[in-house]
């Protein structure tokens, strides 16, 4: 391939995002998987959905075989410029008061689930005592 050894930006790689032109970033390397789409055991949709981002985690999570990893060499077109890949978003838990509100409403529901049957039982017991005494 003419682009071997070339350094690409994420924007450049992201342009290759359809069945006729599909590039992925895996392990800091750029692969043109267009010719492999039909042969991919997981289907082409999986590959197409991984375009425009660093697909390393997706690739590793599946647990590809050694032969699959060796096969990648024939699709290699270059490296990705790591400075063009945005840092992974970290999970920011919601603010504490909001979390407490959720817990409070959950607690109230559980309390009511306990108290309502107890109140009904108490009412029934009270009615029974009242009717026996009259």
Automatic annotation (TrEMBL):
Its main location: endoplasmic reticulum. SUPFAM superfamilies: Cytochrome b5-like heme/steroid binding domain (SSF55856). Residues 5-81 form the Cytochrome b5 heme-binding domain. The keyword Transport applies. It is a single-pass membrane protein. SMART domains: Cyt-b5. Keywords: Electron transport, Endoplasmic reticulum, Heme, Iron, Membrane, Metal-binding, Transmembrane, Transmembrane helix, Transport. The chain crosses the membrane at residues 111-131. It is found in: Endoplasmic reticulum membrane. GO terms for cellular component: endoplasmic reticulum membrane; membrane. InterPro entries: Cyt_B5-like_heme/steroid-bd, Cyt_B5-like_heme/steroid_sf, Cyt_B5_heme-BS, Cytochrome_b5. Gene3D superfamilies: Cytochrome b5-like heme/steroid binding domain. One of its GO terms (molecular function) is heme binding. Belongs to the cytochrome b5 family. This is Cytochrome b5 heme-binding domain-containing protein. It comes from Manihot esculenta.
């Amino acid at each position: 391939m003419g682009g071997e050894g070339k350094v690409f930006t994420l924007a450049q790689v992201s342009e290759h995002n359809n069945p006729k032109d599909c590039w992925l970033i895996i392990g800091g390397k750029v692969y043109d998987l267009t010719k492999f789409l039909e042969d991919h055991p997981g289907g082409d949709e999986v590959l197409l959905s991984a375009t425009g981002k660093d697909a390393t985690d997706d690739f590793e999570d599946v647990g590809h075989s050694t032969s699959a990893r060796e096969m990648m060499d024939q699709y290699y077109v270059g490296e990705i410029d790591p400075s063009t890949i945005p840092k992974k978003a970290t999970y920011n838990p919601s603010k504490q008061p909001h979390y407490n509100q959720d817990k409070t409403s959950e607690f109230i529901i559980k309390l009511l689930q306990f108290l309502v049957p107890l109140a009904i039982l108490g009412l029934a017991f009270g009615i029974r005592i009242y009717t026996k005494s009259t």
